[in-house]
Amino acid sequence: MLVKYWMKTDVPCIDVSASMQDAMRMLKETGAALLPVVKKGSLVGVITDTDLKRASASDATTLDVHELMYLISKIKARTVMSSPAVTVPPDFTLEETAARLLSHGISGAPVVDPKGNVVGIISQREIYRALTSLSGLEKRGIQLAMILEDKPGSIKEVTDVIRSKGARLVSILTSYDRVPEGYRRAYIRAYAVERKTLTEMIEELKQKAQILYVVDHKTDIREIIEEPDFDGRRVAEDKPSSLVQNGKIIFATDFSENSLSARDLALKYAKTLEADLHVVHVVDTRYDVYLGYAADVDSVRHKIGEMVESYMDETTKECKKVWGRVETHVLSGRPYEEIVRFAKKENAHLIVMGTHGWTGLTHALVGSIAENVLRKAPCPVLVARSQNGAG
């Protein structure tokens, strides 16, 4: 999959003499991840949201909004831009592009042809779009993850089972990461699967491979069957034993209605196991970049803090009506990373959380906090569906 087939082409360039205000407007209007900056037609740098935030006067709290807007209208693109620009050619593969973006710690880059012309940009957004297409997510259906012996015919053995149930194969991805020598992981997506034969299919596949998980995208049902450790040993059988009496249970909440079912389940387990219940909320700092454009950043952050404190007090009050051993924690950062980090720090025995229930492209782009916690958590994770069935 080459960059030229997936890059965003309708992105204007901005001249070095243009103002920071022009750059902000163009980024907003185009929805692009970055703006190429040119001088006499030649690329000299790029401007991103991060560049604008870094150059903004968000810390100058003594400025009123009119003074702030006047200031950014005088700052030139040449002062704000990152230079030199990291670029990719149109005939790069998406894998090569992703590796280059990762190595430079950037989210996107201009696409430049052999003559030095900017012909588009490629960013994480376009790579995500390509990934959803390559994996066949639009077809919905099911995804199966498994560990196979690395031998001729091992893929055919499992695909024959899937086809025998009337299913249509959409994509097959394999990897040699996190498996012992002589094995590989396979991720198979199929559709037109009759739900009544799905259980039978999984049982037959277990005779051919070690099944890790099954995700039914049509019904949004996810079954984590087992996950090996880094030596390839099966460890799912050991996890239930970690639910001990007088342990620690984490209830991760975003204070939405979707989290109410999770709250009730967390309380049920805490009371049954006589465990300490830790109510955790993470303030997502990934959106701090937008606060850089606010006239009074400190005021906005203070209001957010007040709202979180109010919601946490209300949640704690409801929890203590059922179980008295409740502690609260407000963390900051990327939600799934902070939840996993807190669980490791506290040696938690169980994490209970809700899910937004996003599906389709929204789910693919935004991702699921619950899924990431499931993959990274040091203990069992219980994901509860919302009471209204949306989760």
| Number of helices in the DSSP assignment | 14
Strand segment count: 15
Low-confidence stretches: 58-62, 229-242, 357-367
Helix coverage percent: 25-40%
Strand numbers in spatial order across the main sheet? 7-8-6-9-10
Please trace the helix and strand order, writing H or E for each element.
EHEEHHHHEEHEHEEHEEEHEHHEHEHHE
Tell me the fraction of residues in β-strands, as a range: 15-25%
Estimate the global geometry from the Cα principal axes: flat
**Rg from Cα:** 25 Å
Helix and strand composition category: alpha/beta
Largest sheet: 5 strands, antiparallel
Distance between the termini: 34 Å
- Mean pLDDT reading: 81
Short description:
The protein has 391 residues and is α/β, with parallel strands linked by helices.
Structure description:
By secondary structure, the chain is α/β, with parallel strands linked by helices. The protein contains 14 helices and 15 strands. The chain has helices spanning 20-30, 49-55, 65-74, 77-80, 94-104, 124-135, 154-164, 195-205, 260-273, 288-291, 297-320, 335-346, 360-366, 369-376; strands at residues 14-15, 34-39, 42-48, 108-112, 118-123, 142-149, 168-175, 183-191, 210-216, 221-224, 248-252, 276-284, 326-333, 350-354, 381-384. The strands form four sheets. A five-stranded antiparallel β-sheet has the order 7-8-6-9-10, with helices on one face. Strands 13-12-11-14-15 form a five-stranded parallel β-sheet, with helices on both faces. It has a three-stranded mixed β-sheet with strand order 1-2-3. A hairpin with a 2-residue loop joins strand 2 (34-39) and strand 3 (42-48). Helix 12 (335-346) packs parallel to helix 14 (369-376). The radius of gyration is 25 Å and the shape is flat. The model is unreliable at 58-62, 229-242 and 357-367 (pLDDT under 50).
